[in-house]
Amino acid sequence: GTTLEFVNTPVEPRLTVAKTASAESLEAGETVDFTITVTNAGEGPLSDITLTDLFEGGAGELVFEDLPAGVIRNEDGSFAIAVLAPGESVEIKSAYTALEEDEGKTLTNSAEAESSGGASGGAKVSVEVEDGGRYVPPSDKPGHDTPAENAVPPMLNGEDHFAYVIGYDDGTVRPEGQITRAEVATIIFRLLDPEVRDENLTAENVFEDVGEGDWYNTAVSTLVKLGIISGRSGTSFDPDAPITRAEFATLFARFDESGTEPAGGFSDLSGHWARESVGRAAALGWIDGYEDGSFRPDNRITRAEAMTMVNRVLNRNPAEEEDLLPDMRVWSDNQPGSWYYFAVQEATNSHEYTRPDSHEDWTKLTEDPDWDRYQ
């Protein structure tokens, strides 16, 4: 008879890692997007993959998007990928907004992955931060460009100083991070005059990417009904997209009923779709530009810049440590001396206050509203 002999040929595990950046260089205030792609390039499954992502050269924080299914972030900052079938890939996306302190430096982002079977791979990408004009932070003088007697737009709640920004579970508030369209809609929804909010409250919209179960659905739906916010198209809102400085200024300019004439002066707004709205917000003292005379309308606005503008619109303006209270919420990444310190504290603490002069004085910390009831 014939004897058949079977030989087991081991399948060699193979793991590849690719790292890309959306730009080769950028200026302070601009954002670069990073993407890590981990691929099982072998013929057998890979499991228990550990991915480390090292970011060097930047003074700020790398912000990660929501992770794909099957990927979790460990306490040490690494990522765990449960399993990858042959040919399967996962993408992990992050973004970094360059700071003034980064000018003239090189940002380096490197990633390495290893599976339990010994397969490994790595990749690195570098981005240059150019020297350039610096953002002009708000003056720390009380009432800078926005005296307390300025009227708050009537559709907004300037009387109650509730916390409208929620920090992260790790004790940070990420002032230099980006802010998404869904987050901005939620903030504005919380800042509406209560009667305006209740009279226009709705959870119905035409967007395919804003569903009934989404935490931002009611906020987006209500603001669309009010004509404050709109979609990227007739059926798409793009809730997870970062919002730009021009878009943010335009949203609040839509609340203004003062008839204020737009201010000129920014060097990069000629012909821009948001020129009039940005000019009006500047004339009202709500926004600042950069030292080189530009506004950089298409840069993504940082969370600190957004909170600063909101506080100016609402005349929420503590100016000294004595204006605050010792038992307030504090954040590890918002330290006294930062240009945005008071703006962030104002945005994240509910309180009662008096206004003895051109700035406010906190008198009592209060409970946050139950915003979850709208989600």
TrEMBL record:
Top-level taxon of origin: Bacteria
Domain SLH positions: 135-202, 203-260, 261-324
Signal peptide: none
Classification via Pfam families: DUF7507, SLH
UniProt xrefs under NCBIfam families: B_ant_repeat
Keywords, alphabetical: Repeat
Region (Disordered): 103-124, 352-375
PANTHER family, alphabetized: OUTER MEMBRANE PROTEIN ALPHA-RELATED, S-LAYER PROTEIN _ PEPTIDOGLYCAN ENDO-BETA-N-ACETYLGLUCOSAMINIDASE
Name of the protein described by the UniProt record: S-layer homology domain-containing protein
Keyword Glycoprotein tagged: no
Organism name: Candidatus Scatomorpha merdipullorum
